[in-house]
Amino acid sequence: MAETNGRRVARGILATLALAASLAASAYAQPIGTRAPSWADLSPPEKQFLTPFASEWDTWDSTRKAKWRGIAQRYPKMAPDEQERVRQQMTAWAQLSPAERQAARERYRTLKTLPPEKKQEVREKWEQYQSLPPEKKRELAAKPVPASPPPTRGARPVPPPPPPPPVTGATPPASAPRN
Which pick of 6, 89, 118, 173 has the fewest CB atoms within 10 Å? Predict the structure, then answer.
């Protein structure tokens, strides 16, 4: 009987260890469909579309990779003018430094929190900017941002107007001035 109890205890311990090992292994495994492929794992059409990001692709997290792979998969189904717009915006985005990209993301998050009337005001300013000739846009981009006057005593400071909104998502348009 002691031998039977000993075997039962041993089986219980082995079963517990096997369960613990399988749980530990599954904790480190990525769920199917969320795997972040390396550049070498991308399909040829994805590589062709995502070429502007080739040098940095393997440093990205899985969320960013999934976002751009989704765009790459939708790209062939887009109208030609939409494909051209996406291609231009993607190329401009790829040319931004990491700090410039982060600043663009921050501006986008700020714009999302604006009340509707402020969003409309920003949209109108952006449309005015878009209609300017390229020389004027370069001139404005080269100008330093004017300093705000010091607030008067007891008055609340008025925040500066937000930057123009990106055309799609967090991707700045190709003609947007860089800060």
Answer: 6
